[in-house]
Amino acid sequence: MKTHEIQIRIRYGETDQMGVVYHGNYAQFVEMGRVEWLRNIGVSYRSMEENGIMLPVISLQLDYKKPARYDDLISVSTTLKKMPGVKIEFEYKIYNEKREILTFGSTVLAFVDMKTGRPVRCPDYLLEKIRE
Predict the structure, then answer these.
(1) Is 111 helix (H, G, I), strand (E, B) or coil?
(2) Do you know which InterPro entries this protein is assigned to (predicted)?
């Protein structure tokens, strides 16, 4: 499946008193990876919302291996796990500049109709972009 990678420079405010990235910030890093993965195939979250679809996270799993620290340049690799149905699943690998794995993770998101609040199937336009 398709993979896209972004880089993020760790800011001082993202670290804790031990000088490492606070664990809660990794959820934002994988979100940034996911948003850019979609943008890379030609779909934005904004356009999905304008078409009446929202994508809430229903599962988030992170496995920390090594810490990231202030001013590190990390890479977030985002991979679509399988073709989406009502849910879309991503896997993540976060690396440091030496390409050492810092964190593994995964998310599951549901396609939800904004008017009804009910789950719906993945929009055809997104499936077409994934297949390209």
Answers:
(1) coil
(2) 4-hydroxybenzoyl-CoA_TE, HB-CoA_thioesterase_AS, HotDog_dom_sf, YbgC/YbaW
